[in-house]
Amino acid sequence: EIVLTQSPATLSLSPGDRATLSCRASQSVRRYLAWYQQKPGQAPRLLIYDASTRATGIPARFSGSGSGTDFTLTISSLEPDDFAVYYCQHRTNWPYTFGQGSKLDIK
Amino acid sequence: QVHLVQSGADVKKPGASVKVSCKASGYTFTGHAMHWVRQAPGQRLEWMGWINPGNGNTEYSQKLQGRVTITSDTSATTVYMELNSLRSEDTAVYYCARDRFASGDFDFWGQGTLVTVSS
Fold first, then answer.
1. Per the CB 3.0–4.6 Å rule, which of A8, A22, A29, B109 could disulfide with A90?
2. Residue B88 to chain A, least CA–CA distance (Å)
3. Which residue does chain A place closest to B94, by CA atoms?
4. Is the peptide bond prior to A8 cis by the omega test (within 30 degrees of 0)?
5. φ and ψ of A81, to 5 deg
6. Whose CA is closest to B114, among B35, B6, B42?
7. C-alpha distances in Å from residue B60, one per residue of A64, A95, A98, B36, B48
């Protein structure tokens, strides 16, 4: 089973700041990595798939990069609505697994 | 537009079974696989398995193999997830999630169903 480790666990920033979240895989997942945003009491929302492709309707301030074992989600200028928990997920083989999440909160 | 509507919260005793439904609308039901993902309190999301409603093929997480069954009813455009021999560790929010395009990532999600296992 591929283990995904996210860092940092919590990131405290202000609106307008740039956020950089990391996801590291225990073995190569090629580019088969997705990012999701989850707010309290809501289902996750797909942001990025295949490491760098934005899902439909996702603003351009969200971008993804990486391949192999190291991936990054960047939010270029934080909006108040962006403060949430972010998860990475691979789809290389079964079982698909998720990272433990990074919480982005308001400083 | 795509909607996935799940059945309501449930409380079960240890050893019992639970069946959660996920009614899909707004797209061709047989054109996308459906996955089930759960989230226990304070834990990461956990993939449980998926079904191809077009042919009924399934795949399950090895961790849950033997306890979980995913089925679909194409006439009702509904997918079901049944989990047997429930334990307290199965207390979680259960989500159905549509496969984006034979891809293994999830572009639409149900609202979630809280299943509580307690004596």
1. A29
2. 21
3. A43
4. yes
5. -75, -10
6. B6
7. 29, 8, 16, 10, 6
- Enumerate the residues of chain A whose CB falls inside 8 A of the CB of residue B5: none
| Residue in chain A nearest B64 by alpha carbon | A95
Kindly report, residue by residue over A52-98, the tens digit of the pLDDT: 999 999 999 999 999 999 999 999 999 999 999 999 999 999 999 99
| B77 DSSP assignment | T
Beta-sheet strands, E only, within B1-119: 3-6, 10-12, 18-25, 34-39, 45-51, 58-60, 68-73, 78-83, 92-99, 106-109, 113-117
- The letter for the amino acid at A72 is T
Query: Alpha-carbon torsion A10, A71, B96, B108, what sign?
Result: positive
Whether the CB of A55 is below 8 Å from some CB of chain B: the reply is yes
Nearest to A44 among B45, B63, B100 (CB): B45
**Quick check: B45 and A89 CB within 8 A?**
yes
The pLDDT tens digits for B45-80 are 999 999 999 999 999 999 998 899 999 999 999 999
- Residue A68 C-alpha, separation from nearest chain B C-alpha, in angstroms: 17
Grouping H, G, I as helix, E, B as strand and the rest as coil, residue B89 is helix
